[in-house]
């Protein structure tokens, strides 16, 4: 205890903008799960946008496909690729982090 003060005398500066577990804070953000991959052959006509919870699908000039959705999008996407015998090279699934939650709750419009 610095200066011999009991812990109950310590005060915070600022205000609480959200109170939850780390997982709860992450769930409360508007963050999306992003699935990126380079398909072994074109996937433009597979209907990726119709998969569960898909927000958007982007086809990059380098062949990379980026699907924005939720955790519920990942399984059906992988199953769809497998049904069409398409390999997802450099598959990456990115989910919201605690950093994203911090920014979500503390960003201020300027």
At a glance:
The chain has 110 residues and is α+β, with helices and mostly antiparallel strands. The chain has helices at 22-27, 71-83, 98-106; strands spanning 33-39, 56-59, 65-69, 88-94.
How is the topology of this model organized?
Elements (H helix, E strand, L loop, with lengths): L21 H6 L5 E7 L16 E4 L5 E5 L1 H13 L4 E7 L3 H9 L4
Antiparallel strand pairs: 1-3, 1-4, 2-3
Notable features of this structure?
110 residues; alpha+beta; four-stranded antiparallel beta sheet; 25% helix
- Approximate helicity band: 25-40%
Let me know the largest β-sheet. 4 strands, antiparallel
User: How large is the share of residues in beta strands?
Assistant: 15-25%
Oligomer: single chain
Description:
- This protein is an alpha+beta fold and 110 residues long.
- Helix content is 25%, strand content 21%.
- A four-stranded antiparallel β-sheet has the order 2-3-1-4, covered by helices on one side.
- A hairpin with a 5-residue loop joins strand 2 (56-59) and strand 3 (65-69).
- The model has no long low-confidence stretch (mean pLDDT 85).
